[in-house]
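User: Here's a protein and a ligand (adenosine-5'-diphosphate). What would the complex look like?
Assistant: Let me lay out the input and then the predicted complex.
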Amino acid sequence: MQKIIQQLAEKLNHIDEAEDVIKLKLEMQNEISRLSMEADILDFKLQRALKDKNVVNSLLTKTSEDLKNALQEHERQAKRLNTLLNTIPALVYFKDSNFRYQLVNKAFLEFSGLTRKDVIGKTLKEVFHHYLPPGKYQELEKQVIKDGRFFYNVEEQVEQNEKKIWIHTNIAPVRSREGEIIGLIGVSWDISSQKNYELQLKQARDLAEEGVHIKDQFLTNMSHEIRTPLNGIIGMAEILGQTNLEKNQNDYLTNLLKSAMHLMGLIEDIFEFSAIETGKFKSETGKFSMPLLMSHLENEFKSEAKDKGIDFSIKVDPKLPKFFTGDETSLRKVLKNLLNNAIKFTREGSVKLSISPEKYLKNNLIIVRFEVEDTGIGIKDIHLNKIFESFSQADISTTKSYQGTGLGLAISKRLVEIMKGQIGVKSKEGKGSLFSFAIPLKVEIPAKELFDESKIIKLLKEFRILMVEDNLINQKISKITLEKSGCKLDVANNGKEGLKKYIQKPYDLILMDIQMPVMDGLEATRQIRKFEKEQGERHAFIVALTANAMESDRKKAMAVGMDGFIAKPFNPKELFKILHGFIIKE
Ligand code: ADP
C-alpha cells in the first residue's frame, strides 16, 4: 500500500508536466478505489486476527486451568497412595533389577528400625546384615527378575538380634511399558505370632492325641484288670451253683451272679461305646441264619419275660429269606439292647419283636425292618428326640428305679448307622413304645452245614486241646466248663510253657490267653506259627481267650496268626461257633 501511495505522490509531483490532466485524474481515481478495497481487506483481516487472538487467549486460560486441576488430582492420588502404602501393616518395597531397594513403606522402616536413607539404593545384605542371611528368599528374587515369575506365600524364618522371626512374603515382577522387567515388588508380613500359635496348637493336638492314646491304653488295661477278677467271681459262682446249696444260699448266689453279670454288662457297654467313639470299632460281616438268631433271642428273653408275667413273641414274616450276610454280632447286640429295655420298662402286657422285608434292592440286597414293641411305661414326647444320646435317660424320676447306664440306645444307634441303617422310636407315655430300625442285608443261598452244636461237641471231644492261661481261677473255670461237654484239655501256665508243650505234642486246638508272664500269648503264637512253618505239616487252631476285648486286641491277635478271638468270661458256645466257622471254611 505504501508503494502505491509513493507512486501516487510521484505522479502528483509531475502533474505540471502532465499532458493530459483528465487521464491522470482517471488513473488516480482507479488507484484510490483499489486502495480503498485493499483497506477494506486489511480491515477484515485485522478484525479476524483480533477474533483469533481472543480464541487463543481463552484457550490458553482453559488449558492452564486443566493442567492445574490435573496436577492437583495427581497430587491427591499420590498422597492417597502414600497414605495407603504407609498405613498397610505389611512391609512393602520396590527393588530395581539389581536387587537394590528403590522404595519402601513406613512399616518396612519401623520393622527394620532404619531410616529411608539407610535403605534406598542398598541390597538386602547391606540393609539387613544383622539378619541371618535368608537363603530361599534371595533365590526366588533372582527368578522373579530373570523369568518374571510370581511367588506367593513364601515363608522363611530369619533371625534378628538373636530373635527368630517368621516372615511371609509375596513377590511379583515390575515391568516397563515395553514389557521389560525393571524390578520387583515385595509384600512381607511378620507372622511369628501366627506361627507360635500354630506351634502351640500342634503341641496341644499332640498332647491331646497322646491323651487319647493313654486313655485307650487305660481302657485296655482297665478292661483286663476288671474283667479278670470278675470272670473269677462269675466262674466260681457258677461252679458253686453246681454244688449242693441250701435254698437261701442259692438265692444269695443268684443275686451275686446277677450283680456280677450286670457289672460285666456295664463294663462292656462302656468299653464298646468308647471303641465306637474312637473309631476303633470294626464291623464284621459274615453269613448267618436269621431263624437261628431268632431262636437264640427267644431262649434268652422268653424266661425273663415269663418271670415278669409278660408275653414275649417273635414274629418273622414268612416272605423273609432265612440266610443273610451281614454283621450278625452288631445286629444281635442292637436287638438285645432293645429287647432288654422293652422287658425292663414293661410291667404288664407284651413285648413283641417283628421282622419283615421292607424293600428289595439290586444285588440280592434287602432292607430288613426290625420292630420291638412293648406295652410298657412309654416315653414323654420331650424326651423322645434325646433318647439316642449317650448317658441319656428319659426321666430320672421314673427310670431311676430301673438299672441302666443310658448307653444302650446310644450304642444301638451307632451300630445301626455302622450297618448303614436308621433307627427310630414312637412312644406314648403310659401306653408303650415302638423302637424300629431297618438295615440292608445280603440274601445268601442256604449254607449246606447249619450250625449244629452236638456235631461240634462230638468233634471237639476228639480234639487234643491245650489251654495256655496264667490265672489259676480262669484255668479252672474253662477246664470245668469244657470237661462238662466231655472234652479233655491240657494246661500250660504261660506262653513259653505252651510253646514247649505244642512242640512235644500236636494239639488241634489251643486256647491262648494274651497277657501272661514269661511269654505272652502273641509271642507264643508267633513262635508256634514259626515252628509250624519249619515243620511244614501241623496247623493248630489258635483261639485267643482273653479279657482284652477291644477291637485293637482282636486285630493284634489276628495279625500274629490266631484263628479266632473269644472275650472272657469263657462261654463254650462261642468256641463252638468259632469251630463251626472253621469247619465251614475247611
Ligand atoms: P439304659 O441303660 O438307661 O436303659 P438306654 O440307652 O438303653 O439306657 O435307654 C435310655 C433311656 O431310654 C432309658 O433310661 C429309658 O428312660 C428310655 N427307654 C429306653 N427304652 C425304653 C422303653 N422300651 N420304654 C420306656 N423307656 C425306654
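Summary: The first strand starts at residue 91 and ends at 96.
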